[in-house]
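Predict the assembly for these two chains.
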Amino acid sequence: MNALFRLTVANLKSFVRDRAALFWTIAFPLIFVVVFGLIFTGNPVPTSYGFADLDGSQASSAVKSAFDSIDGVTLVDGSKDDLLAKMRQGDVSAVIVVPSGYGASVAGGGAPVTLTVYTDPSQSQADGRTRQLVGFVLGTINQAASGRPPAVVPAFEAIQTVQLSYLSYLIPSILGMSLMQGGIFAAIPLVADRQKLILKRLGATPLRRWQLVGSNVFVRLVIALAQTLIIVGVGTLLFGLETTGRWLGVGFFVILGSLTFIALGYVIASFTRTEEAANGITQAVQLPMLFLSGIFFPIATMGPVLQSVARLLPLTYLGDALRQVMVDGTPFAPLYVCVAVLLVWLAGCFAVSARFFRWQ
Amino acid sequence: MTTTSPVATGDVIRVDGLRKAFGDLVAVDGIGFEVRTGEVFGLLGPNGAGKTTTVEVLEGLQKPDAGSVTVLGVDVVRDPQLLKPRIGVSLQNAALYPKLTVIELLDLFATFYPKSRASDDLIQLMDLGEKRKARTQDLSGGQRQRLSVALALIGDPELVFLDEPTTGMDPAARRALWDIIANLRSEGRSVLLTTHYMDEAEILCDRIAIMDHGRFLELGTVTELVDRRFHERAVRFDAIAGLEDGRLSVMPGVSSMAREDGEIVLYSSDVPATIGAVLGAAEELGAEPGNLGVRRATLEDVFLALTGRTLRD
C-alpha cells in the first residue's frame, strides 16, 4: 500500500519536525526518568541518631560502634532529655536509649533487655529506615549473643533494594504515563488538520479514511515503541534498572495501552472543534488520571473513594501490567484482568469515536 | 454504476434540483445546470452566494439535501469514491501539511492517485522552483495558492475544480494561471471554477452562471448574458447634486439606471439623446457632468442590474 506507506512517512516527518511534540513525547519522560533516578539511587541521605548511653558498659559501647559502622549514619551523644529536644527540632531523626543495666543483662542472659528507640512515624521514610537499621543491628547483636555462627549474613543491601525497587516501581509508571500522553494526544493533529481543512482536502482525493486513521495510529505506535526503548534504556544503563527480559509481554502491553489511549484521544477529538479546545480537554482528562490511577504510588495508600475511582481507570491497569511484566512488580490485578479492562476501554472508545468523529 | 468516458461528447457535470441547507441557512436553493466536456464553466457571485457549497457537493465532500448530481457519469451522492481518482480539486482556504515541503507534498499526493503527473513538471508549471524545498508553512498566500492548483493537477484529472483559484495572487501570477487554465481546456480537460473577479470570468469561461443567495440569476456565455440584459450601452458620469433619480430614469433612451460609488450609470438604447438630456439637465443646475463616458455593458453591469449590488460588496 504505497499511499499508506508514504502518508505514514509524511506523518512521521511532520512529527519529527514539530519540536514541541518531540519535547513532550521524548524529552519530557526522559527528564522524569533522570530526575527520579537521581533522587532515588545515589548515596543514602546521611542520617543522624541521638545515642543516650545510660549504661556505660563495654556492651553498650559495642551497640554504639555497631550503629557507627553503618555507612551514612552519624551518632550524636548526649543525655536522653537533650537528645529528645534535639529530635523535636529536627537535628536528629531518632534517639536510641540504652538503659542502665544493659551490659549486665546481656552478659547474664536473663530476661530480654529493652532498648528504647524514639522515632517519628509521620516521617515515614526516615522512620522505616530507622526501624530497619535498629532491627539489623539488634539482630546482629542477638545473633552474636547466641554464640553460634551466623547462618545467614543479613546484608546491608536490604536498604538499597528498597530504593532500587522504588525506581523499579517508577520506570513502568513513567512509561505508562508517557504512553497515556502519547496516545491521548494522538488525535490532536487530526483536530488541527480538520480545523485547517486539511482533512477536507484529503477527502477530495482517492485516499480512504481508514488509511488516514491507520497511518495516524501506526505513527503513534512507532512513537510509543521509541518511547519505551528510550525510557527503559536510560533506566537500565544509567540507573541499573533490572528488568525481567519479558520483552514480548512488555511490547504487547505497550501496544495495547497505546491503542486504548489513542482511542480515548479520538473520543475527545470527536467532541471538540478547535485544536485549543482539544488540548484543554485532553489535559483535563490526562492530569487527573495521572494522579488518580495510582501509577506513582500504591493504590493501597489511597482512601476508599479514590481507590474505587482508580479501579475504573485504564492507566491503573496499564501501569500495573507493565510493572508485572517488566520488573515482576506486586500485582494489583491479575494480568488477564488488566488485558480485559484495557480491551473494554479500547472497544468503548472505538465505538464512540467511530459514531461521533466528524471529518469536516 | 457505469463510468462513462468524459472525453466523448456530452456533459461532465449534470446537476438537477440541487438544494443544501446548513441549519436555517439555505446555501444552495434548487439549482440545475450542465457542464460540457472540454468547457471552462464559471460560477460567479459575491461571497456567501453558495458557490463553494455547490462545488463541494460536486466534489463529493458534502451530501446534498435534495437533487441529483452526476459528475463524469458517476452518481456523486451514491459513489463519491468512484469519482475522486478522476477529478482534481483546489479548495478555498484549505491549508496543507505545514511541516512538509512543496516537493514532499506533491510526491505524497501523487501516491493517492492511480496515475499521476511528475511533481517537478507541476513545480515548473506553477513557477514554484525556488520554493521546491520550502515547507508549506513558509509560503506566501499566492505561492500556497499556486501549490494548491498544482495539487489539483497531480492526479492528471479529467475535470478540475478550482474554488477562487486566483485569490491572493499578484497580477502576474493571475495571468499565468489564466494561461494554465486555457491550456487545460486545450488538452481536452474540463474546468469548473468559481470567482468573484469579473475580468477573470469574462476572459476564461466559455459559460457562466451568476449566483446569488443560493440561486442562479443567469446562465450563458458572456456575450449572451450581456446581450440578453443590455442592447444598451452604459452612459456614466459623476453624480450631480440636485439631479434626482426620478428625472434621470425618464430621460430619452434610458431603460434603467444605477448609482455606484458617487457615479451614475444610465443604460441607454439611444446614447446621443441620453447625453443631450444629461447635458441639458446639468446646465440647468449650473453644473457639468464630470468624467462623462460611454462604454459597452459588461458582466459587472449584468450583475449590478440583477442584484443591485457590485460583486465586490
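The first helix of chain A runs from residue 2 to 16. Confidence is low (pLDDT under 50) at residues 156-164 of chain A.
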